[in-house]
Amino acid sequence: xxxxxxxxxxxxxxxxxxxxxxxxxxxxxxxxxxxxxxxxxxxxxxxxxxxxxxxxxxxxxxxxxxxxxxxxxxxxxxxxxxxxxxxxxxxxxxxxxxxxxxxxxxxxxxxxxxxxxxxxxxxxxxxxxxxxxxxxxxxxxxxxxxxxxxxxxxxxxxxxxxxxxxxxxxxxxxxxxxxxxxxxxxxxxxxxxxxxxxxxxxxxxxxxxxxxxxxxxxxxxxxxxxxxxxxxxxxxxxxxxxxxxxxxxxxxxxxxxxxxxxxxxxxxxxxxxxxxxxxxxxxxxx
Amino acid sequence: xxxxxxxxxxxxxxxxxxxxxxxxxxxxxxxxxxxxxxxxxxxxxxxxxxxxxxxxxxxxxxxxxxxxxxxxxxxxxxxxxxxxxxxxxxxxxxxxxxxxxxxxxxxxxxxxxxxxxxxxxxxxxxxxxxxxxxxxxxxxxxxxxxxxxxxxxxxxxxxxxxxxxxxxxxxxxxxxxxxxxxxxxxxxxxxxxxxxxxxxxxxxxxxxxxxxxxxxxxxxxxxxxxxxxxxxxxxxxxxxxxxxxxxxxxxxxxxxxxxxxxx
Lengths: 286, 263
Ligand SMILES: NC(=O)c1ccc[n+]([C@@H]2O[C@H](COP(=O)([O-])OP(=O)(O)OC[C@H]3O[C@@H](n4cnc5c(N)ncnc54)[C@H](O)[C@@H]3O)[C@@H](O)[C@H]2O)c1
Prior knowledge:
The complex is a heterodimer.
Chain A (H helix, E strand, L loop, with lengths): L3 E5 L3 H12 L3 E5 L3 H20 L5 H9 L1 E4 L10 E4 L5 H14 L5 E4 L6 H5 L8 E6 L8 E6 L5 H13 L3 E6 L6 H4 L1 H12 L5 H11 L6 H8 L1 H14 L10 H9 L18
Parallel strand pairs in A: 1-2, 1-4, 2-3, 4-5, 5-6, 7-8
Antiparallel strand pairs in A: 6-7
Chain B lengths: L3 H8 L7 E6 L3 H11 L3 E6 L13 E3 L7 E6 L5 H14 L6 E4 L5 H5 L8 E4 L10 E6 L5 H13 L3 E4 L8 H17 L5 H12 L5 H8 L1 H15 L8 H9 L7
Parallel strand pairs in B: 1-2, 1-4, 2-3, 4-5, 5-6, 7-8
Antiparallel strand pairs in B: 6-7
Helix pairs in contact in B: 6-8, 6-9, 8-9, 9-10
The structure holds nicotinamide-adenine-dinucleotide.
The site of nicotinamide-adenine-dinucleotide has 21 residues of chain A, from helix 1 and helix 4.
Protein backbone atom coordinates (compact mmCIF):
# COMPACT_ATOMS: atom_id res chain seq x y z
CA UNK A 1 0.00 0.00 0.00
CA UNK A 2 1.25 3.44 -0.89
CA UNK A 3 0.95 5.92 2.01
CA UNK A 4 2.45 8.97 0.37
CA UNK A 5 1.66 9.67 -3.23
CA UNK A 6 3.59 12.42 -5.00
CA UNK A 7 2.19 14.37 -7.94
CA UNK A 8 4.38 16.80 -9.86
CA UNK A 9 2.44 19.43 -11.82
CA UNK A 10 -0.82 20.76 -10.46
CA UNK A 11 -2.50 21.54 -13.76
CA UNK A 12 -5.67 20.01 -15.16
CA UNK A 13 -4.42 16.43 -14.84
CA UNK A 14 -2.38 16.80 -11.66
CA UNK A 15 -5.35 18.28 -9.76
CA UNK A 16 -7.68 15.56 -11.02
CA UNK A 17 -5.28 12.80 -10.03
CA UNK A 18 -4.84 14.42 -6.59
CA UNK A 19 -8.61 14.37 -6.02
CA UNK A 20 -8.97 10.72 -6.95
CA UNK A 21 -6.03 9.71 -4.75
CA UNK A 22 -7.08 11.79 -1.73
CA UNK A 23 -10.61 10.36 -1.87
CA UNK A 24 -9.21 6.84 -1.72
CA UNK A 25 -7.40 7.66 1.53
CA UNK A 26 -3.84 8.26 0.33
CA UNK A 27 -1.82 11.27 1.49
CA UNK A 28 -1.03 13.38 -1.56
CA UNK A 29 1.99 15.64 -1.89
CA UNK A 30 1.15 17.97 -4.74
CA UNK A 31 4.07 19.86 -6.23
CA UNK A 32 4.17 22.77 -8.65
CA UNK A 33 6.60 25.57 -9.37
CA UNK A 34 4.99 28.25 -7.21
CA UNK A 35 2.35 28.98 -4.55
CA UNK A 36 0.03 30.84 -6.88
CA UNK A 37 -0.40 27.82 -9.15
CA UNK A 38 -0.89 25.53 -6.16
CA UNK A 39 -3.47 27.86 -4.64
CA UNK A 40 -5.40 27.87 -7.91
CA UNK A 41 -5.19 24.09 -8.05
CA UNK A 42 -6.57 23.74 -4.53
CA UNK A 43 -9.42 26.11 -5.42
CA UNK A 44 -10.29 23.94 -8.43
CA UNK A 45 -10.14 20.79 -6.33
CA UNK A 46 -12.36 22.32 -3.64
CA UNK A 47 -14.83 23.39 -6.32
CA UNK A 48 -14.98 19.86 -7.77
CA UNK A 49 -15.35 18.34 -4.31
CA UNK A 50 -18.27 20.70 -3.57
CA UNK A 51 -19.91 19.66 -6.82
CA UNK A 52 -19.53 16.07 -5.66
CA UNK A 53 -21.17 16.90 -2.33
CA UNK A 54 -24.02 18.75 -4.05
CA UNK A 55 -24.65 15.76 -6.28
CA UNK A 56 -24.64 13.42 -3.31
CA UNK A 57 -21.52 11.59 -4.54
CA UNK A 58 -19.69 12.24 -1.27
CA UNK A 59 -20.47 13.60 2.19
CA UNK A 60 -19.26 16.90 3.65
CA UNK A 61 -17.10 14.89 6.01
CA UNK A 62 -15.47 12.82 3.24
CA UNK A 63 -14.78 16.03 1.39
CA UNK A 64 -13.10 17.73 4.37
CA UNK A 65 -11.05 14.63 5.07
CA UNK A 66 -9.95 14.18 1.46
CA UNK A 67 -9.13 17.85 1.10
CA UNK A 68 -7.01 17.64 4.24
CA UNK A 69 -4.98 14.85 2.66
CA UNK A 70 -3.73 17.07 -0.17
CA UNK A 71 -0.51 18.83 0.85
CA UNK A 72 0.79 21.53 -1.49
CA UNK A 73 4.59 21.64 -1.91
CA UNK A 74 7.00 23.84 -3.84
CA UNK A 75 10.21 21.95 -3.13
CA UNK A 76 10.89 18.69 -4.96
CA UNK A 77 12.84 17.13 -2.10
CA UNK A 78 9.69 17.44 0.04
CA UNK A 79 8.47 14.47 -1.98
CA UNK A 80 11.24 12.30 -0.53
CA UNK A 81 8.88 10.26 1.67
CA UNK A 82 6.70 9.23 -1.31
CA UNK A 83 6.71 5.59 -2.38
CA UNK A 84 5.16 6.54 -5.71
CA UNK A 85 5.44 9.75 -7.74
CA UNK A 86 3.64 10.61 -10.98
CA UNK A 87 4.55 13.61 -13.06
CA UNK A 88 1.91 15.59 -14.97
CA UNK A 89 3.90 18.61 -16.15
CA UNK A 90 3.74 20.06 -19.66
CA UNK A 91 4.10 17.64 -22.58
CA UNK A 92 7.75 18.31 -23.39
CA UNK A 93 10.39 15.57 -23.47
CA UNK A 94 13.27 17.84 -22.40
CA UNK A 95 11.31 19.21 -19.44
CA UNK A 96 10.19 15.73 -18.40
CA UNK A 97 13.67 14.21 -18.72
CA UNK A 98 15.09 17.03 -16.65
CA UNK A 99 12.42 16.48 -14.02
CA UNK A 100 13.08 12.72 -13.90
CA UNK A 101 16.79 13.43 -13.28
CA UNK A 102 15.94 15.72 -10.37
CA UNK A 103 13.43 13.26 -8.96
CA UNK A 104 15.96 10.45 -9.04
CA UNK A 105 18.40 12.61 -7.08
CA UNK A 106 15.76 13.72 -4.57
CA UNK A 107 13.93 10.46 -3.79
CA UNK A 108 14.53 7.04 -2.27
CA UNK A 109 15.90 4.46 -4.75
CA UNK A 110 12.76 2.33 -4.32
CA UNK A 111 10.33 5.10 -5.25
CA UNK A 112 8.51 4.42 -8.51
CA UNK A 113 8.69 7.31 -10.96
CA UNK A 114 5.69 7.46 -13.27
CA UNK A 115 4.76 9.75 -16.14
CA UNK A 116 1.28 10.74 -17.27
CA UNK A 117 2.48 11.50 -20.81
CA UNK A 118 0.00 10.89 -23.63
CA UNK A 119 2.32 11.02 -26.61
CA UNK A 120 5.96 10.84 -25.48
CA UNK A 121 8.02 7.69 -25.10
CA UNK A 122 8.24 6.37 -21.54
CA UNK A 123 11.39 4.54 -22.62
CA UNK A 124 13.06 7.75 -23.78
CA UNK A 125 12.19 9.50 -20.52
CA UNK A 126 13.44 6.59 -18.41
CA UNK A 127 16.73 6.53 -20.30
CA UNK A 128 18.05 9.49 -18.27
CA UNK A 129 17.74 7.54 -15.01
CA UNK A 130 20.54 5.51 -13.47
CA UNK A 131 17.86 2.90 -12.73
CA UNK A 132 15.38 3.01 -15.64
CA UNK A 133 13.66 -0.12 -14.26
CA UNK A 134 11.82 2.10 -11.74
CA UNK A 135 10.17 4.27 -14.42
CA UNK A 136 6.72 3.52 -15.83
CA UNK A 137 3.86 5.23 -17.62
CA UNK A 138 0.63 5.88 -15.73
CA UNK A 139 -1.73 7.45 -18.22
CA UNK A 140 -4.91 8.97 -16.78
CA UNK A 141 -7.88 10.27 -18.78
CA UNK A 142 -9.45 13.71 -18.47
CA UNK A 143 -11.27 14.44 -16.11
CA UNK A 144 -8.95 12.28 -14.01
CA UNK A 145 -11.12 12.35 -10.88
CA UNK A 146 -14.02 10.84 -12.85
CA UNK A 147 -12.55 8.58 -15.55
CA UNK A 148 -11.90 5.10 -14.15
CA UNK A 149 -9.37 3.93 -16.70
CA UNK A 150 -5.59 4.19 -16.40
CA UNK A 151 -3.08 2.76 -18.84
CA UNK A 152 0.00 1.33 -17.14
CA UNK A 153 2.74 1.71 -19.73
CA UNK A 154 5.64 -0.70 -19.73
CA UNK A 155 8.81 0.97 -21.05
CA UNK A 156 11.52 -1.03 -22.76
CA UNK A 157 13.44 -1.30 -19.46
CA UNK A 158 10.62 -1.12 -16.90
CA UNK A 159 10.84 -4.02 -14.42
CA UNK A 160 7.96 -6.42 -13.84
CA UNK A 161 8.05 -5.42 -10.16
CA UNK A 162 7.48 -1.78 -11.11
CA UNK A 163 4.55 -2.76 -13.35
CA UNK A 164 3.04 -4.87 -10.54
CA UNK A 165 3.35 -2.07 -7.98
CA UNK A 166 1.84 0.41 -10.42
CA UNK A 167 -1.16 -1.85 -11.01
CA UNK A 168 -1.61 -2.09 -7.21
CA UNK A 169 -1.37 1.68 -6.81
CA UNK A 170 -3.95 2.18 -9.57
CA UNK A 171 -6.38 -0.16 -7.82
CA UNK A 172 -5.66 1.47 -4.46
CA UNK A 173 -6.79 4.86 -5.82
CA UNK A 174 -9.90 3.23 -7.24
CA UNK A 175 -8.93 3.08 -10.90
CA UNK A 176 -9.15 0.24 -13.40
CA UNK A 177 -5.67 -0.46 -14.81
CA UNK A 178 -4.84 -1.96 -18.20
CA UNK A 179 -1.27 -2.70 -19.27
CA UNK A 180 0.22 -1.50 -22.55
CA UNK A 181 3.64 -1.74 -24.12
CA UNK A 182 5.34 1.62 -24.72
CA UNK A 183 4.16 2.29 -28.28
CA UNK A 184 2.64 5.47 -29.75
CA UNK A 185 -0.93 6.05 -28.60
CA UNK A 186 -0.75 3.12 -26.12
CA UNK A 187 -4.19 1.46 -26.40
CA UNK A 188 -6.98 4.03 -26.34
CA UNK A 189 -5.52 6.78 -28.50
CA UNK A 190 -4.42 4.21 -31.04
CA UNK A 191 -7.50 1.99 -31.30
CA UNK A 192 -9.75 5.08 -31.43
CA UNK A 193 -7.98 6.44 -34.54
CA UNK A 194 -10.27 4.74 -37.13
CA UNK A 195 -13.36 6.11 -35.40
CA UNK A 196 -12.29 9.59 -36.55
CA UNK A 197 -10.16 8.64 -39.55
CA UNK A 198 -12.81 6.56 -41.33
CA UNK A 199 -15.53 9.11 -40.53
CA UNK A 200 -13.41 11.86 -42.11
CA UNK A 201 -12.78 9.73 -45.19
CA UNK A 202 -16.46 8.89 -45.56
CA UNK A 203 -17.17 12.61 -45.40
CA UNK A 204 -14.37 13.42 -47.84
CA UNK A 205 -15.65 10.80 -50.30
CA UNK A 206 -19.18 12.19 -49.99
CA UNK A 207 -20.67 8.92 -48.83
CA UNK A 208 -22.76 10.75 -46.22
CA UNK A 209 -22.94 14.10 -44.40
CA UNK A 210 -21.56 14.97 -40.95
CA UNK A 211 -25.05 14.75 -39.44
CA UNK A 212 -25.81 11.44 -41.15
CA UNK A 213 -22.57 9.79 -40.11
CA UNK A 214 -23.07 10.85 -36.47
CA UNK A 215 -26.66 9.63 -36.55
CA UNK A 216 -25.77 6.26 -38.12
CA UNK A 217 -22.98 5.68 -35.60
CA UNK A 218 -25.23 6.56 -32.65
CA UNK A 219 -28.62 5.19 -33.65
CA UNK A 220 -27.37 2.44 -35.93
CA UNK A 221 -24.35 1.40 -33.88
CA UNK A 222 -25.29 2.24 -30.30
CA UNK A 223 -22.43 4.68 -29.64
CA UNK A 224 -23.07 7.48 -27.14
CA UNK A 225 -21.54 10.11 -29.43
CA UNK A 226 -20.84 10.37 -33.14
CA UNK A 227 -17.28 10.91 -34.44
CA UNK A 228 -17.88 14.52 -35.48
CA UNK A 229 -19.58 15.52 -32.22
CA UNK A 230 -16.69 13.93 -30.40
CA UNK A 231 -14.04 15.72 -32.49
CA UNK A 232 -15.84 19.01 -31.76
CA UNK A 233 -15.79 18.22 -28.05
CA UNK A 234 -12.13 17.14 -27.94
CA UNK A 235 -11.08 20.01 -30.18
CA UNK A 236 -10.34 19.45 -33.86
CA UNK A 237 -6.86 20.96 -33.32
CA UNK A 238 -6.06 18.48 -30.52
CA UNK A 239 -7.48 15.54 -32.46
CA UNK A 240 -5.50 16.56 -35.56
CA UNK A 241 -2.29 16.93 -33.51
CA UNK A 242 -2.72 13.47 -31.94
CA UNK A 243 -3.34 11.88 -35.35
CA UNK A 244 -0.38 13.66 -36.89
CA UNK A 245 1.89 12.62 -34.04
CA UNK A 246 0.78 8.97 -34.35
CA UNK A 247 1.33 9.07 -38.11
CA UNK A 248 4.85 10.44 -37.68
CA UNK A 249 5.77 8.13 -34.81
CA UNK A 250 4.71 5.12 -36.88
CA UNK A 251 6.84 6.38 -39.79
CA UNK A 252 3.94 7.12 -42.10
CA UNK A 253 1.66 4.13 -41.42
CA UNK A 254 -1.33 4.84 -43.74
CA UNK A 255 -3.92 3.84 -41.10
CA UNK A 256 -3.01 6.92 -39.07
CA UNK A 257 -2.73 9.41 -41.93
CA UNK A 258 -4.55 12.66 -41.02
CA UNK A 259 -7.17 14.09 -43.36
CA UNK A 260 -7.09 17.40 -45.21
CA UNK A 261 -10.54 18.25 -43.82
CA UNK A 262 -9.03 18.42 -40.30
CA UNK A 263 -6.21 20.65 -41.45
CA UNK A 264 -8.56 23.06 -43.21
CA UNK A 265 -10.84 23.31 -40.19
CA UNK A 266 -7.83 24.17 -38.04
CA UNK A 267 -6.68 26.69 -40.69
CA UNK A 268 -10.11 28.30 -40.55
CA UNK A 269 -10.12 28.45 -36.76
CA UNK A 270 -13.15 26.16 -36.68
CA UNK A 271 -11.70 23.90 -34.01
CA UNK A 272 -14.86 22.75 -32.27
CA UNK A 273 -16.97 23.72 -29.29
CA UNK A 274 -14.32 25.91 -27.72
CA UNK A 275 -14.28 28.22 -30.77
CA UNK A 276 -18.05 28.24 -31.29
CA UNK A 277 -17.75 26.32 -34.54
CA UNK A 278 -16.44 22.97 -35.62
CA UNK A 279 -18.37 20.41 -37.64
CA UNK A 280 -21.40 21.95 -35.94
CA UNK A 281 -22.18 25.54 -34.86
CA UNK A 282 -22.43 26.30 -31.15
CA UNK A 283 -24.54 29.40 -30.68
CA UNK A 284 -23.94 29.74 -26.93
CA UNK A 285 -20.17 30.22 -27.44
CA UNK A 286 -18.23 33.02 -29.14
CA UNK B 1 -45.76 10.70 -44.23
CA UNK B 2 -49.05 11.73 -45.87
CA UNK B 3 -49.07 8.45 -47.72
CA UNK B 4 -49.38 6.42 -44.54
CA UNK B 5 -52.66 4.73 -45.53
CA UNK B 6 -51.59 3.76 -49.00
CA UNK B 7 -48.45 2.30 -47.46
CA UNK B 8 -50.46 -0.13 -45.37
CA UNK B 9 -52.30 -1.41 -48.41
CA UNK B 10 -49.02 -1.76 -50.17
CA UNK B 11 -47.28 -3.91 -47.59
CA UNK B 12 -50.24 -5.90 -46.28
CA UNK B 13 -51.42 -8.77 -48.46
CA UNK B 14 -55.01 -9.93 -48.92
CA UNK B 15 -54.77 -12.30 -45.94
CA UNK B 16 -54.05 -9.32 -43.70
CA UNK B 17 -50.45 -10.34 -43.14
CA UNK B 18 -48.12 -9.37 -45.89
CA UNK B 19 -45.34 -11.74 -46.78
CA UNK B 20 -41.68 -10.98 -46.26
CA UNK B 21 -39.18 -13.32 -47.86
CA UNK B 22 -35.71 -13.43 -46.32
CA UNK B 23 -32.72 -15.24 -47.74
CA UNK B 24 -28.99 -15.12 -46.93
CA UNK B 25 -26.55 -15.96 -44.17
CA UNK B 26 -27.15 -17.06 -40.60
CA UNK B 27 -27.55 -15.41 -38.09
CA UNK B 28 -28.66 -12.29 -40.00
CA UNK B 29 -31.60 -14.15 -41.57
CA UNK B 30 -32.85 -15.25 -38.13
CA UNK B 31 -32.42 -11.77 -36.66
CA UNK B 32 -34.52 -10.14 -39.39
CA UNK B 33 -37.03 -13.00 -39.43
CA UNK B 34 -37.73 -12.57 -35.71
CA UNK B 35 -37.99 -8.83 -36.12
CA UNK B 36 -40.49 -9.09 -39.00
CA UNK B 37 -42.53 -11.87 -37.34
CA UNK B 38 -42.69 -9.78 -34.19
CA UNK B 39 -44.22 -6.91 -36.18
CA UNK B 40 -46.93 -9.14 -37.64
CA UNK B 41 -45.51 -10.13 -41.01
CA UNK B 42 -45.81 -13.60 -42.50
CA UNK B 43 -42.18 -14.53 -42.79
CA UNK B 44 -40.62 -17.05 -45.14
CA UNK B 45 -36.91 -17.73 -44.79
CA UNK B 46 -34.16 -19.61 -46.55
CA UNK B 47 -30.40 -19.83 -46.05
CA UNK B 48 -27.42 -20.18 -48.36
CA UNK B 49 -26.28 -22.78 -45.89
CA UNK B 50 -28.79 -24.02 -43.32
CA UNK B 51 -27.54 -23.37 -39.81
CA UNK B 52 -27.16 -26.40 -37.54
CA UNK B 53 -28.93 -26.94 -35.24
CA UNK B 54 -31.98 -25.48 -36.95
CA UNK B 55 -32.88 -22.18 -35.26
CA UNK B 56 -36.08 -21.83 -33.23
CA UNK B 57 -38.24 -18.87 -34.12
CA UNK B 58 -40.48 -16.95 -31.75
CA UNK B 59 -43.34 -16.09 -34.12
CA UNK B 60 -44.65 -17.85 -37.19
CA UNK B 61 -41.76 -18.23 -39.56
CA UNK B 62 -41.83 -20.70 -42.42
CA UNK B 63 -38.73 -22.19 -43.97
CA UNK B 64 -38.99 -22.59 -47.74
CA UNK B 65 -36.81 -22.17 -50.78
CA UNK B 66 -39.67 -21.10 -53.02
CA UNK B 67 -40.57 -17.45 -53.21
CA UNK B 68 -44.30 -16.79 -53.14
CA UNK B 69 -45.63 -14.47 -55.86
CA UNK B 70 -47.51 -12.44 -53.25
CA UNK B 71 -44.30 -11.52 -51.40
CA UNK B 72 -44.49 -7.84 -50.49
CA UNK B 73 -40.83 -7.29 -49.69
CA UNK B 74 -37.78 -9.51 -50.16
CA UNK B 75 -34.55 -9.25 -48.18
CA UNK B 76 -31.32 -10.67 -49.60
CA UNK B 77 -28.96 -10.70 -46.60
CA UNK B 78 -25.91 -12.52 -47.92
CA UNK B 79 -22.86 -10.65 -46.60
CA UNK B 80 -20.00 -11.69 -48.84
CA UNK B 81 -20.61 -14.74 -51.04
CA UNK B 82 -21.09 -13.10 -54.44
CA UNK B 83 -22.13 -16.28 -56.27
CA UNK B 84 -24.87 -17.05 -53.76
CA UNK B 85 -25.99 -13.46 -53.76
CA UNK B 86 -26.22 -13.39 -57.53
CA UNK B 87 -28.13 -16.68 -57.65
CA UNK B 88 -30.57 -15.49 -54.96
CA UNK B 89 -31.17 -12.16 -56.68
CA UNK B 90 -31.79 -13.72 -60.09
CA UNK B 91 -34.27 -16.18 -58.54
CA UNK B 92 -36.06 -13.43 -56.62
CA UNK B 93 -36.21 -11.15 -59.65
CA UNK B 94 -37.94 -13.89 -61.67
CA UNK B 95 -40.37 -14.96 -58.94
CA UNK B 96 -41.54 -11.62 -57.53
CA UNK B 97 -44.24 -9.29 -58.79
CA UNK B 98 -42.78 -6.29 -60.62
CA UNK B 99 -43.73 -3.92 -57.79
CA UNK B 100 -42.03 -5.86 -54.98
CA UNK B 101 -38.74 -4.32 -53.87
CA UNK B 102 -35.64 -6.32 -53.01
CA UNK B 103 -33.59 -4.97 -50.11
CA UNK B 104 -30.14 -6.33 -50.67
CA UNK B 105 -27.24 -6.31 -48.27
CA UNK B 106 -24.65 -4.06 -49.91
CA UNK B 107 -21.86 -3.94 -47.34
CA UNK B 108 -19.41 -5.90 -49.51
CA UNK B 109 -20.82 -5.43 -53.03
CA UNK B 110 -22.27 -2.08 -54.11
CA UNK B 111 -25.98 -2.24 -54.93
CA UNK B 112 -25.16 -0.70 -58.32
CA UNK B 113 -22.97 -3.67 -59.18
CA UNK B 114 -25.66 -6.08 -57.97
CA UNK B 115 -28.19 -4.35 -60.20
CA UNK B 116 -26.19 -5.42 -63.28
CA UNK B 117 -27.10 -9.05 -62.47
CA UNK B 118 -30.88 -8.69 -62.85
CA UNK B 119 -33.39 -7.16 -65.24
CA UNK B 120 -35.66 -5.66 -62.57
CA UNK B 121 -33.02 -3.10 -61.62
CA UNK B 122 -35.64 -0.63 -60.38
CA UNK B 123 -36.55 -2.89 -57.46
CA UNK B 124 -33.08 -3.14 -55.96
CA UNK B 125 -32.10 -1.05 -52.91
CA UNK B 126 -28.92 -1.59 -50.90
CA UNK B 127 -29.06 -1.82 -47.11
CA UNK B 128 -26.32 -2.13 -44.52
CA UNK B 129 -26.80 -5.24 -42.40
CA UNK B 130 -24.35 -7.02 -40.12
CA UNK B 131 -25.17 -9.51 -37.35
CA UNK B 132 -26.11 -8.06 -33.94
CA UNK B 133 -27.44 -4.68 -35.13
CA UNK B 134 -30.99 -5.58 -36.12
CA UNK B 135 -32.40 -4.03 -32.92
CA UNK B 136 -30.89 -0.64 -33.73
CA UNK B 137 -33.12 2.19 -34.90
CA UNK B 138 -31.31 3.30 -38.06
CA UNK B 139 -30.68 1.33 -41.23
CA UNK B 140 -28.31 2.66 -43.87
CA UNK B 141 -29.97 2.52 -47.26
CA UNK B 142 -28.30 2.90 -50.64
CA UNK B 143 -30.53 3.32 -53.70
CA UNK B 144 -28.85 3.00 -57.11
CA UNK B 145 -29.29 5.22 -60.18
CA UNK B 146 -32.04 2.83 -61.29
CA UNK B 147 -34.07 3.08 -58.09
CA UNK B 148 -37.13 5.33 -58.42
CA UNK B 149 -38.24 7.49 -55.51
CA UNK B 150 -41.31 5.29 -55.02
CA UNK B 151 -39.20 2.22 -54.27
CA UNK B 152 -37.20 4.14 -51.66
CA UNK B 153 -40.51 5.21 -50.10
CA UNK B 154 -41.71 1.62 -49.93
CA UNK B 155 -38.45 0.67 -48.21
CA UNK B 156 -38.85 3.58 -45.82
CA UNK B 157 -42.39 2.52 -44.88
CA UNK B 158 -41.34 -1.08 -44.51
CA UNK B 159 -38.51 -0.10 -42.14
CA UNK B 160 -40.89 2.20 -40.26
CA UNK B 161 -43.21 -0.76 -39.78
CA UNK B 162 -40.24 -2.51 -38.12
CA UNK B 163 -39.70 0.52 -35.87
CA UNK B 164 -36.76 1.77 -37.88
CA UNK B 165 -35.76 4.77 -39.91
CA UNK B 166 -33.62 4.78 -43.00
CA UNK B 167 -30.64 7.00 -43.63
CA UNK B 168 -30.00 7.33 -47.36
CA UNK B 169 -26.27 7.22 -48.11
CA UNK B 170 -24.20 6.89 -51.28
CA UNK B 171 -23.91 3.37 -52.65
CA UNK B 172 -20.37 2.50 -51.59
CA UNK B 173 -18.70 -0.74 -50.49
CA UNK B 174 -18.47 -0.83 -46.68
CA UNK B 175 -21.14 1.88 -46.29
CA UNK B 176 -20.77 3.96 -43.09
CA UNK B 177 -21.06 1.95 -39.87
CA UNK B 178 -19.52 -1.29 -41.19
CA UNK B 179 -16.48 0.60 -42.46
CA UNK B 180 -15.88 2.42 -39.17
CA UNK B 181 -16.57 -0.60 -36.96
CA UNK B 182 -14.57 -3.12 -38.95
CA UNK B 183 -11.56 -0.80 -38.96
CA UNK B 184 -11.87 -0.48 -35.15
CA UNK B 185 -11.82 -4.26 -34.88
CA UNK B 186 -8.88 -4.43 -37.29
CA UNK B 187 -6.84 -1.90 -35.30
CA UNK B 188 -7.62 -3.75 -32.06
CA UNK B 189 -6.34 -7.01 -33.55
CA UNK B 190 -3.13 -5.27 -34.67
CA UNK B 191 -2.64 -4.14 -31.05
CA UNK B 192 -3.13 -7.69 -29.76
CA UNK B 193 -0.96 -9.21 -32.48
CA UNK B 194 1.91 -6.86 -31.63
CA UNK B 195 1.67 -7.75 -27.93
CA UNK B 196 0.91 -4.15 -27.04
CA UNK B 197 -1.97 -5.35 -24.87
CA UNK B 198 -4.19 -8.36 -24.18
CA UNK B 199 -7.61 -8.67 -25.87
CA UNK B 200 -9.31 -8.21 -22.48
CA UNK B 201 -7.37 -5.03 -21.74
CA UNK B 202 -8.11 -3.62 -25.20
CA UNK B 203 -11.85 -4.09 -24.61
CA UNK B 204 -11.70 -2.67 -21.07
CA UNK B 205 -9.67 0.30 -22.28
CA UNK B 206 -12.07 1.24 -25.08
CA UNK B 207 -15.21 0.85 -22.96
CA UNK B 208 -13.86 2.90 -20.05
CA UNK B 209 -11.57 5.27 -21.92
CA UNK B 210 -13.87 6.22 -24.82
CA UNK B 211 -17.26 5.06 -23.63
CA UNK B 212 -17.79 2.59 -26.52
CA UNK B 213 -20.81 0.35 -25.86
CA UNK B 214 -18.69 -2.77 -26.51
CA UNK B 215 -14.99 -3.46 -26.79
CA UNK B 216 -13.75 -3.89 -30.38
CA UNK B 217 -12.68 -7.50 -29.81
CA UNK B 218 -16.07 -8.36 -28.29
CA UNK B 219 -17.64 -6.66 -31.27
CA UNK B 220 -15.62 -8.70 -33.71
CA UNK B 221 -16.95 -11.81 -31.99
CA UNK B 222 -20.56 -10.61 -32.14
CA UNK B 223 -20.43 -9.55 -35.78
CA UNK B 224 -18.32 -12.59 -36.61
CA UNK B 225 -14.62 -12.17 -37.44
CA UNK B 226 -15.19 -13.73 -40.84
CA UNK B 227 -17.75 -11.03 -41.66
CA UNK B 228 -15.39 -8.29 -40.45
CA UNK B 229 -12.76 -9.81 -42.69
CA UNK B 230 -15.16 -9.90 -45.68
CA UNK B 231 -16.10 -6.25 -45.24
CA UNK B 232 -12.49 -5.12 -44.97
CA UNK B 233 -11.27 -7.13 -47.94
CA UNK B 234 -14.13 -5.74 -50.02
CA UNK B 235 -13.14 -2.18 -49.04
CA UNK B 236 -9.47 -2.95 -49.63
CA UNK B 237 -10.35 -4.16 -53.14
CA UNK B 238 -12.64 -1.27 -53.85
CA UNK B 239 -10.30 1.53 -52.73
CA UNK B 240 -6.87 -0.11 -53.20
CA UNK B 241 -5.55 1.68 -50.15
CA UNK B 242 -2.99 0.31 -47.72
CA UNK B 243 -4.92 1.56 -44.74
CA UNK B 244 -7.41 -1.28 -45.18
CA UNK B 245 -4.69 -3.93 -44.92
CA UNK B 246 -6.06 -6.65 -42.65
CA UNK B 247 -4.06 -7.83 -39.65
CA UNK B 248 -2.82 -11.41 -40.04
CA UNK B 249 -4.39 -12.14 -36.65
CA UNK B 250 -7.80 -11.03 -37.90
CA UNK B 251 -7.39 -13.31 -40.93
CA UNK B 252 -6.66 -16.26 -38.64
CA UNK B 253 -9.66 -15.43 -36.49
CA UNK B 254 -11.79 -15.27 -39.62
CA UNK B 255 -10.64 -18.67 -40.74
CA UNK B 256 -10.82 -20.51 -37.43
CA UNK B 257 -13.77 -18.65 -36.02
CA UNK B 258 -12.24 -18.78 -32.60
CA UNK B 259 -9.85 -16.86 -30.48
CA UNK B 260 -6.21 -17.18 -31.36
CA UNK B 261 -3.91 -19.07 -29.03
CA UNK B 262 -0.39 -17.82 -28.84
CA UNK B 263 2.02 -20.74 -29.45
N1 LIG C 1 -5.27 17.32 -20.59
C1 LIG C 1 -5.53 16.06 -20.94
O1 LIG C 1 -6.59 15.75 -21.46
C2 LIG C 1 -4.49 14.98 -20.68
C3 LIG C 1 -4.89 13.65 -20.63
C4 LIG C 1 -3.94 12.66 -20.36
C5 LIG C 1 -2.62 13.01 -20.16
N2 LIG C 1 -2.24 14.31 -20.23
C6 LIG C 1 -0.81 14.64 -19.97
O2 LIG C 1 -0.70 15.16 -18.67
C7 LIG C 1 0.35 16.11 -18.61
C8 LIG C 1 -0.16 17.42 -18.05
O3 LIG C 1 -1.22 17.89 -18.82
P1 LIG C 1 -2.25 19.00 -18.30
O4 LIG C 1 -3.34 19.08 -19.29
O5 LIG C 1 -2.58 18.76 -16.89
O6 LIG C 1 -1.33 20.32 -18.43
P2 LIG C 1 -1.48 21.71 -17.65
O7 LIG C 1 -0.83 22.71 -18.50
O8 LIG C 1 -2.89 21.91 -17.21
O9 LIG C 1 -0.59 21.51 -16.34
C9 LIG C 1 0.81 21.40 -16.35
C10 LIG C 1 1.32 21.86 -14.99
O10 LIG C 1 2.69 21.52 -14.89
C11 LIG C 1 3.38 22.60 -14.27
N3 LIG C 1 4.78 22.54 -14.70
C12 LIG C 1 5.29 22.91 -15.89
N4 LIG C 1 6.61 22.66 -15.91
C13 LIG C 1 6.93 22.14 -14.71
C14 LIG C 1 8.14 21.68 -14.12
N5 LIG C 1 9.28 21.72 -14.78
N6 LIG C 1 8.07 21.21 -12.87
C15 LIG C 1 6.92 21.16 -12.21
N7 LIG C 1 5.75 21.59 -12.71
C16 LIG C 1 5.76 22.07 -13.94
C17 LIG C 1 2.66 23.84 -14.73
O11 LIG C 1 2.88 24.89 -13.81
C18 LIG C 1 1.22 23.37 -14.75
O12 LIG C 1 0.59 23.59 -13.53
C19 LIG C 1 0.92 16.19 -20.01
O13 LIG C 1 2.01 15.31 -20.12
C20 LIG C 1 -0.22 15.70 -20.86
O14 LIG C 1 0.20 15.12 -22.09
C21 LIG C 1 -3.15 15.30 -20.47
